[in-house]
Every structure is written in C-alpha cells, then in structure tokens.
Amino acid sequence: MYHDSRIVTAALSYSYVIVQWHSSRCYAYSFVQKHSLMYIFQKLFNPTGQKFYSLFNEVAENLKQMGQVYATAAYDNGHMLPIYFTQLEALEEANDMVTHKLFVELGRNFITPFDREDIHFLATGLDDIADYIWASIKLMKNYAIGQGDRTMQQFADQCHKAIKLIAAAVQQLKDKKQLSSLAAPCMEAKKILYDSDAMIDTAVSSLFTAYDGADADTVLLIKKMDHYEIMQALLEKCGDAINTIESVIIKYG
User: Fold this and answer.
1) Where are the domains of the chain?
2) What 3-state DSSP class applies to 24?
3) Helix-strand-coil percent breakdown of the chain, rounded to 5?
4) pTM over cut 0.85
5) Cα–Cα distance between 11 and 238 in angstroms, integer?
6) 66 and 91 in contact (C-beta within 8 Å)?
7) Which is higher by pLDDT, 64 or 38?
8) Cα–Cα distance list, 237 to 11, 82, 115, 234, 247 (Å)
9) Architecture in CATH for domain 47-252
10) SS3 string of 162-181?
C-alpha cells in the first residue's frame, strides 16, 4: 500500500465495495453485486411511493363505503339511522388512523412520489370528506329529523357518485403515465358538485317559502338549515380534494 492511499469500506445489504484511491486514479472492487451503489441511488432518488399509494388506497376504499352508507341512510325512516351512524363512525375512525399514518410517512420520508404539499392537502381533504359525511348523519340522528326530504336524498345520491369518482382518481394516481386521463372524471365530479350546490340553494329558498306564516314549524326549519349547511360544507371538501388531484395532474401528467 502506498503511503498516500486511503481505503473506504461501505457495507450495503449483503455487499461491500472497497475503493482505493492513489493519486488521480480510482479502483473499485465489488465482491457481491446484488445491490450496487447505482441501485441504491435509484431507490433513493426515484422512490416508488408504494407506501403512500397503499395508504391513499385505503382511504379511498373507506370513502367509497362511507358514500354507500350515506346514500342508504338518507332514505331511512329513522329506525335504522343509529345503525348507519355506528357504521359511519367506525369507518370515520378507521380513516383517521390511516390519515395519521400518511402524515407519519410524510414526516419520515425526505423524498415523496409527488409534492409534499399536495400529499398533505389531499390527505386532509379526503379526511374532511369523511368527517362531514359522518357529521351529516350525526345531525340527522341527534336532531331526530327522521327520513331525509327529497333534497337530502338526491344530494346523498349525487354525493355518492362524486365520492366514487374522487376515490377512483386517488387510486389511479400511482400510474403517472395515465394521470392526464383523470382530468375527465375530475370534471365530471365537479359538475356533480356544482349541480348539488344549486339544488341545496333552491331547497333553502323553498324552505323559507314553505314555512312562511303563523303556523311555520320554526324548529324544523332550523334543523334543516343546519343540515343543509353541513351538506354544503361536504361539497366544499369534495371540491378541495378534486382541486388537489388536478394540481397533481398538471404537475406530473
């Protein structure tokens, strides 16, 4: 060994590389090439994001189930509402746990499959959708509204459709080559949200017309107004999630 040489040994999973420097020349010897340095660097700087996609897939599946229960509960006459509420509560709690895992992964990983900000916004937006679905049925149960009126039923059906489109888009984010194809379902979901918002506005206007007079049931009016506000908030949260998905499409599609 020459007096000005240096030896660096790096052990990487079942392999190690000895690099000997002498003057301006470098010699590298790889005894086991199962995991080369190039492979390690590719894994570091081109992450598959499988953990993130797996967790987002869980959230999407939860939301699809919640949307289905929500649409069914809107047609119930009140007898089964506590059962639907319990189901939604369990799904909402499960969704909270998965969302927490997403935030933990975001904190642990320096490099992510797409922008950290978008991951944070999407996880938060999807969690908010779950929260407001649960809150809507909770209000119906606590206020003893009974069977939802025609507006509530149509809204729940349309909301279920929009949630299925959002969930499907979330589950396809992992295929970056096909991101541009998600633009159409996002626009379809947006139209559903727009129409649903207009439907609620009409219902609110009709509500005051219907209850105008001395015999107006003020308590029922207040109950329905509170519920309509939650329904509109749910639409906003769905819109936020769609906007984040569209942001990912623009950046990586």
Assistant:
1) 6-41, 47-252
2) coil
3) 70, 10, 20
4) no
5) 48
6) yes
7) 64
8) 48, 25, 20, 5, 15
9) Up-down Bundle (1.20)
10) HHHHHHHHHHCCCCHHHHHH
